[in-house]
Design brief:
The protein is mainly β and 106 residues long. It is 0% helix and 69% strand.
Length: 106
């Protein structure tokens, strides 16, 4: 979901995006990988379209500190016939990040 608002009569715009990848699985011959996101990822921005002829954009990404969970289940051989071997689990937090972008003719 994305939103953008250009303020009438000005060179200023703001907006944001909300994305979510609830679950993704990858199947291999000897393993199954799973990815899950704890909540939606939010990106917010403020933009000025003409500062000395340049476009200036300030963005805050991952504003909610999203947790990403990864798990991999390994099998002793082909997963359809071999016994379970082990499972690995990892959680990674996406910390908020700030981005400053200048574009145009220099």
């Amino acid at each position: 979901l994305e939103y953008r608002h250009d303020i009438t009569g000005t060179d200023i715009a703001y907006g944001g995006a909300v994305t979510r990848q609830i679950e993704a699985r990858t199947f291999r011959t000897n393993s199954i990988q799973r990815f899950r996101q704890s909540r939606p990822s939010i990106e917010l921005y403020l933009e000025h379209k003409n500062i000395a002829g340049l476009k200036f954009r300030f963005t805050v990404a991952d504003a909610l500190r999203v947790r990403n969970d990864f798990s991999t289940t390994f099998f002793a051989g082909r997963r359809d016939t071999a016994p379970f071997l082990r499972q690995e689990r990892t959680s990674i937090f996406d910390e908020p990040s700030v981005q400053l972008e200048l574009s145009g003719a220099f």
